[in-house]
Design brief:
The complex is a heterodimer of chains A (312) and B (257). Chain A has 13 helices and four strands. Chain A has 312 residues and is an all-alpha fold. By secondary structure, chain B is an alpha/beta fold. In chain B, the strands form three sheets. In chain B, strands 6-7-8-3-9-10 form a six-stranded mixed beta sheet, with helices on both faces. Chain B has a four-stranded antiparallel beta sheet with strand order 2-1-4-5, with helices on one face. In chain B, strand 7, helix 6 and strand 8 form a beta-alpha-beta unit. The longest helix of chain B is centred in the last third of the chain and has 16 residues. The chains are: A mainly alpha (312), B alpha/beta (257).
Chain lengths: 312, 257
């Protein structure tokens, strides 16, 4: 058995990012900011995959989280980071609690397609609502954090720091969760639902819970992206967005809570550079990246770090 | 002695096929009962009805004076009736340790947990690993184990639920002839510690006569004989329908195929 250093690595990353943030160039901070936010969404995706489910509709909660933050700003003149993010979490969690009642009955492709359908319904609704800017979406900005005014010129850093802290808390909490009884039950459900029921545990309850957790994380990620970019639009609920989350989750692997953040950062970086250097070919670059990972690292990028270690 | 499990006028049919016909059984606390019968005689159907996987067409099942007919497997398990499977049902990507940890964890969170202070979950798992001789496989994924070990783990997982009644569906099937007794010795030894009523389905009459207090012989959904092992195994009908005439059962102790 090797010593699990995930918590220490997380803590070190938290400190380094918070300290280095103010000195980092604007573009790097932005890239990392978006990557971390996406990583939070993929973290939820990873929890679902550990339970044996792949959702092609995480865009639903990602978009809901973003719009919850955006609507607070545009309709209620709230521009507090903490309140916006809490609204993102609450909205996504509530909707998932209801939809989960239905979705927890489905598996495999049916679960994937049904979750995709729900996200496309939201997309359709948003496109048709001129109140919310239709296909263009609308902009938002932030000015306070939990009531404290942000000093002049530090608003970008405040957003970045919020993303870093939110990432840290989410990853740490999920790490603890995966190593708990419920976390083990997730793997057990993926392997053999019949046996789980015959041990006296409710498969549906665990799936429902994990679905809500994954939605909360997607909502949080959406809220973070909204305040980072300062704009929301219905594309966030479009199925290609959900597809990108699945893409990153497979690229990352489900071995560790650090994997989604590594995967998201590499994804964003490859995409940014590919887009700049080969504007007409960037999708091919991403496709080839994925192909190479699947061929040589079937367990995802994370398996680079576990090679040579004995499975425990 | 008090009866822990009772079936009253149990019937089950699948269309025109009768899988259980008028089954009346009372099982006493702490007894070891063998269920015998040819394939399709209704043994597994009986287990499936007791554990809630199948709902009887008519009749009722009582556990500690409580009617449990039609409850789901999850609820039945929660009450203290656990089972193992003919084909081991394991969590193949989880290690042996984690397989047991899931079982112990679920039991510890059930309503029965209060009356069983048995140490921490980790200690319970270690206890099971020791009693079922699984120490050499602790960290291995369940999917990669040899069949005999999978069988043992499957039974250990049922025991992890701290059952009051344990149903074993063909515990020695798929286990080589010379290992069967070793396996059953180990299982029975492990169960003695916690005082469990055991019902098991078995095709090997040596095993049946050696480990049971009582035998139920099934034929076409009916119980055709019920009693002490040697009496049942010597019964003319049982020898004709269950064991086969060309087998010699010598005073219920030894059979040759």
């Amino acid at each position: 058995m090797f010593k699990d250093r995930t918590s220490q690595i997380l803590l070190a990353a938290l400190v380094i990012l918070l300290v280095a943030g103010p000195f980092a160039p604007r573009w790097a901070m932005f890239l990392l900011n978006v990557s971390l936010s996406w990583g939070v969404v993929v973290l939820g995706m990873m929890l679902l995959m550990r339970t044996g489910l792949v959702s092609f509709g995480q865009g639903l909660y990602y978009c809901l989280g973003a719009y919850a933050a955006g609507v607070l700003h545009s309709k209620y003149a709230v521009s507090d980071i903490a309140i916006m993010l809490l609204a993102s979490i609450a909205t996504a969690g509530l909707v998932a609690a209801v939809l989960g009642l239905l979705l927890a009955k489905y598996r495999d492709i049916f679960f994937a397609m049904l979750s995709l359908a729900f996200s496309m319904i939201l997309f359709g609704l948003l496109v048709r609502s001129s109140e919310l800017g239709s296909t263009d979406g609308f902009g938002l900005s932030v000015s306070t954090f939990a009531g404290m005014a942000l000093p002049e010129g530090w608003d970008r850093y405040a957003v970045f720091a919020s993303a870093v802290v939110a990432t840290f808390v989410s990853a740490w909490a999920i790490h603890r969760y995966l190593n708990s009884h419920l976390g083990r039950l997730a793997g057990a459900i993926r392997d053999n639902e019949l046996r789980v029921e015959y041990m006296g545990a409710s498969v549906r309850r665990v799936i429902h819970l994990n679905y809500v957790i994954s939605a909360v994380l997607a909502g949080l990620g959406g809220g973070l992206v909204a305040i980072t970019i300062g704009h929301v639009d219905p594309e966030m609920a479009f199925w290609t967005t959900s597809g990108e989350f699945v893409f990153i989750a497979i690229l990352s692997g489900t071995g560790n809570v650090l994997a989604p953040f590594l995967g998201a950062t590499i994804f964003e970086t490859v995409r940014s550079y590919a887009y700049e250097i080969l504007p007409n070919w960037w999708q091919i670059v991403l496709g080839v990246t994925m192909l190479l990972v699947i061929m040589f690292l079937p367990g995802g990028l994370w398996s680079i770090f576990v090679r040579g270690r004995k499975a425990t | 002695m008090a009866s822990v499990l009772e079936a009253r006028n149990l019937n089950k049919s699948f269309g025109a096929v009768t899988a259980a016909a008028d089954i009346n059984v009372r099982v006493e606390q702490d007894s070891v009962v063998g269920l015998i019968g040819s394939n399709g005689a209704g043994k597994t159907t009986f287990i499936n009805m007791v554990t809630g996987y199948l709902k009887p067409t008519s009749g009722s099942i009582h556990y500690l004076e409580r009617d449990i007919t039609g409850l789901s497997p999850r609820v039945v398990t929660g009450l203290g009736i656990c089972r193992s499977f003919q084909i081991p049902q394991l969590f193949n990507t989880l290690s042996v340790h984690d397989n047991l940890m899931v079982g112990v964890g679920v039991a510890a969170r059930s309503s029965r947990a209060a009356d069983s202070a048995r140490g921490s979950e980790e200690q319970q798992v270690e206890g099971l690993i020791e009693r079922f001789n699984l120490a050499g496989y602790r960290g291995q994924a369940a999917g990669l184990l040899p069949e005999g070990v999978r069988k043992l783990l499957d039974i250990a997982m049922a025991v992890a639920g701290q059952p009051k009644v344990l149903l074993l569906d063909e515990p020695t099937s798929g286990v080589s002839a010379d290992e069967k007794f070793r396996l059953m010795d180990m299982v029975m030894e492990a169960l003695k510690v916690q005082g469990v009523t055991v019902l098991f389905v078995e095709h090997d009459m040596d095993i049946v006569s050696r480990y049971t207090h009582r035998v139920l012989a099934f034929y076409e959904g009916r119980i055709i004989a019920d009693g002490e092992p040697h009496a049942v195994l010597d019964d003319a009908e049982v020898r004709k329908y269950v064991i086969g005439e060309d087998l010699h059962v010598q005073s219920g102790r030894h059979a040759q195929a």
